[in-house]
Amino acid sequence: MNEKNESEIIKSREENLKFILEKGIMPYKYSFQRTGTINEILEKNKDIKEGAESEDVEMLAGRLISLRLHGKTIFGHIKDSGNKIQIYVRKDDIGEEQYEIFKKLDIGDIIGVEGKIFKTRTGEITVKVSKFELLTKSLLPLPEKWHGLKDKEIRYRKRYLDLIVNDNVKKNFELRTKIIKEIRNFLDMQGFLEVETPMMQLIPGGAKAKPFLTHHNALDLDLYLRIAPELYLKRLLVGGFEKVYEINRNFRNEGISIKHNPEFTMLELYVAYADYKVVMQIAEDLVVNIADKVLGTRIIEYQGEKIDLTPPWKKLKMTDAIKEYSGIDTEKESEQELINRLKQREVEIRQGITKGELIALTFEEFVEEKLIQPVFITDFPVEVSPLAKESRKNPGFAERFEPYIFGREIGNGFSELNDPKEQEKRFKEQIEQDTGGEVARVIDKDFIEALKVGMPPAGGLGIGVDRLIMFFTDAPSIRDVILFPLLRPQGSE
RNA sequence: GGGUGAUUAGCUCAGAUGGUAGAGCAACUGACUCUUAAUCAGUGGGCCCGGGGUUCGAGUCCCCGAUCACCCA
After folding, report:
1. What Cα–Cα distance (Å) separates residue A459 from each residue in A220, A236, A238?
2. What residue is closest to B9 (Cα–C1')?
3. How far is the CA of A141 from the C1' of B10 (A)?
4. How far is the C-alpha of A339 from the C-alpha of A382, rounded, in Å?
5. What is the pLDDT along chain A (493 residues), one digit of tens a residue?
6. Which nucleotide minimizes the distance between its C1' and the CA of A161?
7. B46 C1' – A145 CA distance, angstroms?
8. CA nearest A161: which of A175, A145, A172, A174?
9. What is the pTM of this model?
10. ipTM surpasses cut 0.95
11. How far is the CA of A483 from the C1' of B51 (A)?
């Protein structure tokens, strides 16, 4: 950390750099023309016989990750974004002067090599180096080669080191990109239009969460980073788009945990003329499609638990789920009885709480964590579903669902409320109930106005993309699927 | 916000009962022209997270703080 230690450890690298500069070698080259990636070259030469040499001279580049010096020969490995390959350097092949320069390379340097491909006695496909070039000098040591980098703090803070050293980390992030691409592909094929709506909003709506505040100078205007895109996507339904979706960042100014990062990626989609049943089907199809296309299996293992994504997923009304998993009959029990149960679990109960809110809290407290296999929880109390239509069959409950996997809510969907007067009333009730600053104090009048123009009946769905990716990559923490998770800054540096 | 644990060499980790610190890898020097956790011989490297205390003496005990991890709200 301090200068003295650092100079101890990098002294030899600085000396090597000096040696190289004295030889007139530029330590930071502009480019290097490769004949292929390491994977391509390995594939091309996979059938080469032991002792034989390839006809073609190949040019490869990568980071030097290991070195074995044997007097007049050197073995090592270089690694590019796809794979690693062994290199073999002989003094006889590259000449005395070049050999001396090669010996001054350090693990971590990025080099280009030129040479024919052969197979060693031990059967490893190897580059017989006839020429090499230093492309980038590395001045700091890499983490140790077989234990790798374990310290979570350094892994998250210095993700570049994590990516260099831990191959599975890189694979998980590649998988993340594949999953998101597959989501887009799936929706595009069904005629959805991907759109982008404001990240900076005057009134942060569409969810219950504390927002981040920012300021626009020229307009002298306070703005909020969005907590959800919902109200803007619905405006697009009013405008005549019938199937829209957005995959983008939401920001919530709340605690950080294994399941929460202040900025996270959300998918929201809306389908005109559809109700919640239609989007529930889309949610199931979407997840199963990822399993099929990206993993090639519908049975995934998450944190040692086998999860079977094979459709159709179970559907359970919230009150039935409570009955089934906890034995509590919320229809029969009075509000006070539910309050007593919750207080025993040290759940905070606000003054004037409604029955619906109590049902939702009971569900969270007694049921959620038990929902390991995929299940749709439906029929949420209207009081906790201010943007959803009331059920046609089940008064007091909304046409709403949330898919649960491994005790975690991975999405949220409903038949979208499009009655402007009812919507305004629900917003007002929300503001009255809010105690924690999780609801904007102002009603989004423009949104109400849009509803007055007329929004077609519609089903909507939101899916927490990071959490979904956690399942598919068997990641225990959301930080393992976000390249640069938010951490508290450290004092020095 | 509360609780528990961690923090020792560049990395991964040891350091009972308090006596100024150890290993492997990495680094450095030397030997070695098919090695691959190369091998062999040698060398250097530490404000033991920070600040206070207790003690003749603290990496170790106590208090405060920092960061991270996990659990809870």
Report:
1. 37, 13, 13
2. A5
3. 6
4. 19
5. 334 445 456 788 889 999 999 999 999 999 999 999 999 999 999 999 988 899 999 999 999 999 999 999 999 999 999 999 999 999 999 999 999 999 999 999 999 999 999 999 999 999 999 999 999 999 988 888 778 898 898 999 899 999 999 989 999 999 999 999 999 999 999 999 999 999 999 999 999 888 999 999 999 999 999 999 999 999 999 999 999 999 999 999 988 888 999 999 999 999 999 999 999 999 999 999 999 999 999 999 998 889 999 999 999 999 999 999 999 999 999 999 999 998 888 888 888 889 999 999 999 999 998 999 999 999 999 999 999 999 999 999 999 999 999 999 999 999 999 999 999 999 999 998 887 788 888 999 999 999 999 999 999 999 999 999 999 999 999 999 999 999 887 653 3
6. B11
7. 22
8. A145
9. 0.93
10. no
11. 35
Nucleotide nearest to A13 (CA to C1'): B27
Query: CA(A10)–C1'(B43) in Å?
Result: 17
Q: Is the peptide bond before A141 cis (omega within 30 degrees of 0)?
A: no
Q: How far is the CA of A16 from the C1' of B52 (A)?
A: 44
- Any idea how long chain A is? 493
Closest nucleotide over all strands to A107 (CA to C1') = B26
The bases of strand B with some atom under 7 A from any protein CB are 1, 9-13, 24-28, 31-39, 45-47, 66-73
Residues of A450-480 as b/e, b for ≥16 C-beta within 10 angstroms? bbeeebeebbbbbbbbbbbbbbbbebeebbb
